[in-house]
Design goal:
Layout: E1 2-7, H1 12-24, E2 28-34, E3 54-58, H2 64-73, E4 78-81, H3 88-93, H4 95-117, E5 118-121, E6 127-129, E7 134-140, H5 164-183, E8 187-192, E9 194-196, H6 205-214, E10 219-222, E11 228-233, H7 234-247, E12 253-256, E13 261-263, H8 264-281, E14 305-308, H9 323-329, H10 337-350, H11 352-358, H12 361-371
Parallel strand pairs: 1-2, 1-4, 2-3, 4-7, 7-8, 8-12, 9-11, 10-14
Antiparallel strand pairs: 5-6, 11-13
Helix pairs in contact: 1-7, 2-4, 4-5, 6-8, 8-10
Bound molecules: nicotinamide-adenine-dinucleotide and 2'deoxy-thymidine-5'-diphospho-alpha-D-glucose (DAU).
2'deoxy-thymidine-5'-diphospho-alpha-D-glucose binds next to helix 6 and strand 10.
Length: about 375
């Protein structure tokens, strides 16, 4: 039995990882640590928490005392750090919080892992650690900056972050590498492209567009909608992290992506088409639409799209070269984009109670602040 400390477990990818691990293995115990910020919702994982194989603790990754006690009390073998402030637009509004959570929080976890796992000092002066331990950092392709029309990010692409969010994630990656090089802590890092799938917080492009269609509200597309993101179904990201933690060489970095690049405007049009198809095929879903818009669905189309002021410093294109994780670990994405986006649209249409539960007053205020008059 291995014990994992899974931070950010009540967020989008963390919660999918919890479900993935519990569904796949009988011999893991997960200690889920989450501060339950606006982006964390306990309802997403509460059916998984049984107090034995899956334990939940509300708290801050930056709280050294708490993290130390969890490492000790549960005898943690593996730390997987999902916890972060994750939204680029919010980082433009409030960079400080990103520094606090993403950089200082990561360094606190690294320090606590080092303290808990160190067994002594080798003849070379470096610390030694007990067998089978691993600190894994969930990072992002955004640390590499932006691509032009050609080429892909490889693990050797120099870090060149542009937003306060990506600068904080790049800095965290540097700390992880520093703990590897200075203290020989067994670490690994995955840098994944844009995820999509169930439990994606409504502020992000795909769920935001879906939610606005259902309210017949304008669909805000930044700039000309030509920016490109490389989309991966969230379960394929979870599989990659699991493989890297189990079989990835300590100290290594792995890019994760499935060659699914799409312009934002193409994503928006795809969602419009799929929502309309679902409404046509399952008329009972039309009750999700405003009462006066359920009969004739022709309004679900191009007319809803509104081009709004661009995101400051908006990266043009991300594109991942995943060759290393494929060659070294045999990882491959199982869900292609066409299947994954259909599943995702269907999930959002049939889980409105989850969307309502996470879109409280705070989120409504954020939306008004971010999009009014843009
Ligand atoms: P999310 O915003 O949905 O979830 C973040 C979770 O972290 C929330 O549950 C939140 O409550 C928790 N959290 C925030 N601050 C905390 C703190 N101080 N202590 C404990 N918990 C805290 O984010 P996500 O999209 O699930 O992303 C998870 C990780 O994956 C992040 O590190 C992000 O940088 C990385 N990532 C995300 C994507 C993506 O497309 N979403 C792609 C690549 C990498
Ligand atoms: O690439 C990985 C990153 O993907 C992760 O590290 C981040 O945590 C995650 O949030 C995501 O960042 P993006 O900025 O790419 O995701 P977002 O959904 O915010 O935006 C996707 C694209 O859509 C981006 O080019 C901006 C654009 N966009 C976004 C919103 C919210 C719009 O055009 N309109 C919108 O309303």
């Amino acid at each position: 039995m291995k014990t994992y400390l899974v931070t950010g477990a009540a967020g989008f990818i963390g919660s999918n990882f919890v479900k993935y691990m519990l569904g796949r293995y009988d011999d893991v115990r997960l200690v889920c640590l989450d501060l339950l910020t606006y982006a964390g919702y306990l309802g997403t994982i509460d059916e998984n928490i049984d107090g034995e194989r899956c334990i939940f603790v509300r708290g801050d990754i930056g709280d050294r005392k708490l993290v130390d006690s969890l490492m000790k009390d549960y005898d943690v073998d593996v730390v997987v750090n999902f916890a972060a402030e994750s939204h680029v637009d919010r980082s433009i509004e409030n960079p400080q919080l990103f520094l606090q959570t993403n950089i200082l929080g990561t360094q606190t976890l690294l320090e606590a892992a080092k303290a808990a796992w160190q067994t002594g000092k080798g003849a070379d002066g470096f610390p030694t650690y007990r067998d089978g331990v691993r600190y894994h950092q969930v990072s992002t392709d955004e640390v590499y900056g932006s691509l032009g029309k050609e080429g892909y990010f490889t693990e050797n692409t120099p870090l060149d972050p542009h937003s306060p969010y990506s600068a904080s994630k790049a800095s965290a990656d540097h700390f992880v590498a520093a703990y590897r090089d200075t203290y020989h802590l067994p670490v690994s890092i995955t840098r994944c492209s844009n995820n999509y799938g169930p439990y994606h917080f409504p502020e992000k492009l795909i769920p935001l567009i879906l939610g606005n269609i259902l309210k017949a509200k304008p669909l805000p597309v930044y700039g000309k909608g030509e920016n490109i993101r490389d989309w991966l179904y969230v379960e394929d990201h979870c599989k990659a992290i699991d493989m890297v933690v189990r079989n990835g060489k300590p100290g290594n970095i792995y890019n994760v992506g499935g060659h699914n690049e799409r312009q934002n405007i193409v994503i928006v049009r795809t969602i419009l088409t799929l929502v309309r198809e679902e409404m046509e095929q399952n008329p009972e879903l039309r009750t999700l639409l405003p009462a006066d818009k359920r009969e004739d669905l022709s309004w679900i189309g191009e007319g809803l799209i509104t081009y709004v002021t661009d995101r400051l410093g908006h990266d043009l294109r991300y594109g991942i070269d995943p060759q290393k994780i494929k060659d070294d670990l045999g990882w491959y994405p199982e869900t292609d984009f066409e299947t994954g986006i259909r599943k995702t649209v269907h999930w959002y249409l049939t889980h409105r109670e989850w969307v309502e539960a996470v879109s409280g007053d705070d989120y409504q205020q954020y939306y008004e602040r971010m999009y009014a008059g843009r």
